[in-house]
Amino acid sequence: MAHIKSRKHPVGRRLNCSAAVALAVLALPAYAQQAGDFAKQSGTLPQITVQGAAETYKAEKVSSPKFTQALVNTPQTITVIKKELLQDQGATTLTEALRNTPGVTMTMGENGNTATGDSIFLRGFDTSGSIFIDGIRDLGTVTRDVFNIEQVEIVKGPSGSDNGRGAPSGYVNLESKKAKAEDFNNASIGARTAGSVRAAADVNRQFGDNSAFRLNLLSDTGGVEDRDWVKNKSLGIAPSISFGLNTPTRVTLNFLHVEQRNRPDGGIPAIGIPGFQVPSQSGGAAFPYPDNLRKVDRSNYYGSPSDFNDVDANMFTAFIEHDITPNVTIRNTTRYGITDQEYNLTGINAITAPSADPSTWTVSRSRQGKDQRNEILTNQTNVTAELEAGGIKHSLSGGVEFIHEKQRNSLYASVTGQQAANLYNPSVSDVFQPLVKNGQKTEGDTTTVAAYLFDTIKLNEAFQVNGGVRYEHYSTDFTNTATPLNLDASDNLLTWKVGALYKPAENGSVYVAYASSQKPPGSDNFTLSTSTSGGQAINNPNLDPQKSKNVEVGTKWDLMDNRLAFTAAIFRTENENAAVQSDPVTNEVTAFGKQRVKGIELGLVGQITSAWQISGGITRQDTETVEGSTTQTGGSLNWSPKLTATAWTTYRFPFGLTLGGGARYVDSQLRSANAAAPTTNVAQLPSYTVFDAMASYEVSKNLSLQLNVYNLADKFYVQSVNNGGSRYTLGQPRSAFLSANLKF
Predict the structure, then answer these.
(1) Which residue, 487, 515, 512, 490, is CA-closest to 502?
(2) Cβ 743 vs Cβ 368: under 8 Å
(3) Residue 86 host element (H or E)
């Protein structure tokens, strides 16, 4: 039987494990990394030992079989963030990983609610509901760890033909780790300056000729920098077993269990941020903007010590592949997953100023509760084929998907009488009103049946055409026992994309592409509403879906013997039916409006030399509400900075020392899409630039030490602010992460 062993030693990732389990894993013997893929044929190959080079930041393809070509020949902007880059940066969450692509910003929550998970804005639009794992939508507003992730893929622009309903901006896909036909042991343990400790392990064992078992473990517990009362604790276990590796029929079974036991952060009052205006004082007289108002202490905590955010996630996935012929492969993926999240937290809202003396000022607090279960069951079948007809080569990918998604929320009784906190000197000993469930619930579920087909037609060596179409039928049911309310919606959606690509050289391409997507009512949160105005009106089942389209012109080049990838694209995205209006006589609601985002994006990733790696990108975008409500028309989209840039580089010296560093720039962000700037709280987030650095040293072939320092200049910056502009999440202050990485 055939397997290829490599003696290369990529730096071990901070993968995963409970501290005790991690220490046990460190004792496991002999590491060897596979460097070959199964050639699509039966039979065996001779055993070969090869000497491999260090892993590069550059990816060749995305994980989905719906993309039939290498990235350089794919007519769409796609950023792939590999685990090697995350390892060098000490990045452990999806939010930290997404710092490596421009055009992404984070938000804090709507109205009085505080976000407790990955809240992503991409190219002008909320993309939080378009996060996928292995091409399957991942439900829930939770913080995702990357301990069990091979790479993060950001597909930009409307992509309804790929995955169905989704944001106009694209989607984020995380590729899970799977068992491989090789032996290796990677582990790490590290400590942060906030007092948290992270231990992780990634162990793979081949048994027999074509089977393997892999185990990823994680334990991450401790505090958050400059947030004295905020605590996070995560445990992850991810076993994977594969059969039939290097044979025509391959089966992989994955399981993921994640526990989080956190004390959440309700935020910090936004007073003192440049541009902040105090809403009012007693008697209603407005303060002029005071230059001497100071920020609250960044360590202030306005919540209760009993606040909690508990997450339990379990996910089982079966991957089955069979090579019908060397050019035809059928794949089936089945997943069942449940994510439970329950939290009690304290949010902060308006400031009350009874006098001109700030020491007397208070900030109101709200008690927020959530008890939510997200459930998904899906079966997806895909067939890929390479064929030639009439002298024209086709790369086909088609399939069918059956998806059932369900969300249940237990409701809480309204909380009144919560004691306000002193603005500058809050106390955790204050009286906090209890959160009590009222016995009511909301429940929403969406069932989708879809079929799709993609084809890349190679007219000759220089020209190819890529196209895809997806047709799906969805049905959404929503129940609110408190109202009571029972609503349903169903429709058929047709989305497609097409691209024409010219290759002036083997290592480059120039392309033009068009893509569409649709987003029907209730898409993000399974919630339908009878509202005819306000934020919930967009979920009225009588409305047409939001429809988006994107035109992109770009070029991609693999330079320096294909070690370095350069990309450039000009894009224009339009989203229609984004606003709601009702007839004053009949009260009938209709969707209308148009939002537009246009810009340019440049990217560079890979190796300049075998020792020098780089990853970077820059996006310049302009956003506009072309048609909307009276207050929005002509205004820019919120949370959409005009300019964002990211850069990271490392250099490995011959004696085992690696030095690296990078910078991130985010332009100012409007918090409101209204054409007129808000007159209270924070109207926009200030721009910021942050510098990071790393150094690692290979003590031996089995041990390396790594130090990451974040925000070298200790720049004060705001990572996110709520929609009302009254509270914010602190950007990471100067901090460090020291880790030991082991491999055997």
Answers:
(1) 512
(2) no
(3) helix 83-89
Could you report the average pLDDT of every consecutive run of 10 residues in the chain (744 residues)? 34 35 32 33 37 74 96 97 97 96 86 77 92 95 95 95 94 97 97 96 96 98 93 97 98 98 94 78 46 84 96 98 98 98 93 82 94 97 95 96 97 95 95 96 97 97 96 97 95 97 98 97 90 84 94 98 97 93 80 94 97 98 92 91 98 97 96 82 92 98 97 94 88 96 93
| pLDDT score at 441 | 97
Q: What is the pLDDT, as a whole number, of residue 535?
A: 75
pLDDT of residue 27: 34
Q: Which residues pair with 647 in a beta bridge?
A: 616, 663
Per DSSP bridges, beta strands 170-176 and 131-133 are parallel
C-alpha distance from residue 406 to each of 8, 380, 524 (Å): 45, 18, 12
Encoded tokens for 444: 């929403």
Instruction: Write down the pLDDT at residue 676.
Output: 82
Say what the pLDDT of residue 32 is: 30
Tokens 């452990």 correspond to 92
Q: Which of 363, 347, 346, 359 is nearest to 279 (CA)?
A: 363
DSSP state of 162: H
Please, which residues have CB within 8 angstroms of residue 692's CB and are 6 or more apart in sequence? 89, 648, 661, 662, 663, 664, 708, 709, 710, 711, 712
Q: Tell me the DSSP string of 424-457.
A: SS--TTS--PPP-EEEEEEEEEEEEEEEEEEEEE
Quote the CA–CA distance of 113 and 348 in Å, as a whole number. 9
Tell me how far the alpha carbon of residue 324 is from its chain's centroid.
35
The Cβ-side half-sphere exposure at 115, using a 13 Å CA radius, reads 22
User: Is residue 262 a contact partner of residue 309, using CB atoms and an 8 Å limit?
Assistant: yes
Q: Give the H or E element holding residue 289.
A: none
Q: Which residue has the tokens 């059928």?
A: 330
3-state secondary structure of 100: helix
Radius of gyration, CA atoms only, the chain = 26
**How distant, in Å, are the alpha carbons of 537, 538, 551, 576, 595 from that of 544?**
12, 9, 22, 10, 16
Give the span between the Cα atoms of 722 and 363, in whole angstroms: 15
Q: List, in sequence order, every residue forming a beta bridge with 478; answer none if it has no partner.
A: 444, 487
**Selection from 536, 678, 706, 728 nearest residue 192 by Cα:** 706
- Cβ-based neighbours of 378, under 8 Å, separated by 6 or more: 136, 333, 334, 335, 401, 402, 403, 404
Which pLDDT does position 583 carry in this prediction? Answer: 76
Residues forming a β-bridge with 307: none
DSSP assignment string, 109-131: -STT----S--EEETTEE-TT-E
Q: Spell out a b/e string for 538-561, using b for 16 or more CB atoms within 10 Å of the CB, else e.
A: bbbbebebbbbbbebebbbbbeee
Q: Output the pLDDT for position 515.
A: 97
**249-277: b or e for each residue (b if 16 or more CB lie within 10 Å)?**
ebbbbbebebebebbbbbbbbbbbbebbb
CA distances (Å), origin 516, targets 150, 168, 391: 28, 8, 31
Say which DSSP state 725 is in: S
Taken in order of first residue, the domains within the chain and their CATH numbers are 4-420+446-743 (2.40.170.20)
* CB-based contact 80:151 (threshold 8 Å): yes
pLDDT at 291: 53
CB-CB contact of 533 with 491 (8 Å): no
CA distances to 79, 595, 660, 698 from 608, rounded to whole Å, are 18, 39, 14, 22
For the record, the structure tokens of 35 come out as 């460097």
Helices (DSSP H) in 108-245: which residue ranges? Answer: 160-163
Residue 484: cis peptide before it, omega within 30 degrees of 0 = yes
pTM of the full structure: 0.90
Instruction: Check if the beta carbon of residue 721 is closer than 8 Å to that of residue 671.
Output: yes
